[in-house]
Fold:
Amino acid sequence: MKQKTNPLLSIHSYIVIAFIYLPVLMILIFSFNTSRISSKWEGFTFKWYGSLFSNRYVMDALMNSLTIAITSTIIATVLGTIAAIALRNALKKSKTVLGMLYLPIVVPDIIMGLSLLLLFSQFHFPLGKWTIIIAHVTFSISYVYVIVASRISGMGKQLEEAAQDLGASPWQTFRHITLPAIWPGVLAGAIMAFTLSIDDFMISFFVSGPNSTTLPIYIYGLVKRGISPEINALCTIMIFVSVGLILLAQWLQNKGNRGKKASTLPF
Amino acid sequence: MRKSKWLVSPVVLWLSIFLILPMAIVVVISFLQRDEFGNLIYQFTLDNYARFFDSLYMGVYWDTLVLSISTTVLCLLISYPLAYYIANAGATRQKIWLLLITVPFWINFLIRTYAWVLLLRSQGVVNSVLMNIGIIDEPLKMLYTKGAVLLGMVYTFIPFMVLPIYVALEQMDKKLLEAASDLGATRWNAFRLITLPQTKSGIMTGSVLVFVSTAGMYVVTDILGGAKSAMLSNIIQTQFLGARDWPFGSALSVIFAITSLVMIFLFNMALRSRHERAKEGRA
Structure:
């Protein structure tokens, strides 16, 4: 039985949604505005997008972001998936190991960033792409683990047992039975790791070196210097890429997971 | 496959080296000294912690607490009705609303903060609109104020509060509400005595998330607040990336971590009902 909702509640909810989306919409609109400085609308243009693609710094930052995201996604997905599979059969899951796996989600970004900076400097590891990759793997592992583990927990063991009864080796069983069954989860975890990496600023800012400026670090520099229509264009592209990726990840996670409550929440 | 437990060791090893060890290093360095070039001197000292009690840093610490608590309270006041509305909507509408709340989660907060620069600066959208309507003649100074920082923080962290409260509302036992209304309770009393206590786990999770995230978020203050509104996280960031006073920065980080833990504990205490405390007292 649903009670009738109070009209004040729905008005409040629509106002909050407007409050959340209007500022972002503003960026989208201004990225097509002819005027460079004014906040008045002076005509529609694509030129800011054009100048973005001919800007060497933007392209360098984009390449860095992609290299870092792809590398860290591969490492984090392999490690996180292995952990999820390993812990599946452990009857009594060690609380220490589980706690450790959830820790990166709980530790504030600023602490993770500065503590890694201290680690790298103590061991004289030069800051650059690799230090960012290591940082991103460290926080992505948890998310991959959570997503893959939830996929595995909804899966029966009959097929694997049947395969082993029919003489398949553990590797064959994994390759032909387990992996295909958990694949959507692995993919969803990988997309999540990729998006987190492309998006991260707080941690990357601490461990980046002179030649490893990522897109968010580049945007931060621009924003600190002031407003420009190129930032609007760049932000618009980033909004569509991350939102698109997350919707894809959610779709993959829900596929075959019907009936179960799905969630894109990182907690 | 029974003996596959060792497979977890690569992850344990990775997290030990790149998560646990670095945090241990922070604690150790917070007790060390440094020379005038910023190099570490391996001698024990408590000076870094003593420096924190300087009135300058105590002021910043107080400001940080006030900002984080205000952000948490505002987020709660805005988010609870919204989460309640979503939880009571039909299945399809629930899905759409949830999607609407989660999407901004994945838009880089740098971008969302920058949007407020566009809106609040003196030649920005809000000032242009107000001046065109004729409400004001001179642009208002909104950017680089504490109000702008609070606005930016609330804006950034609303989803952190809506989602846990929604989950709690979804999971609560709805039969209790029916029972209450059958027994003649008003809707307000049913809400106060049943819904609110049943969803306090969501309120707590949301509050902790918002509080800790606000206290650790150095970018919003940096972009919307200007130099005068520096918070603890800005001071910490400067110690590492600007001033190169790592021992002091480490000490401040330890203080930040302890504050977060204390706040988590306090939220936990505050949200436990009198009833539960009474029960424990009797036991």
In short: The mean pLDDT of chain B is 88. Residues 55-87 of chain B form the longest helix (33 residues).
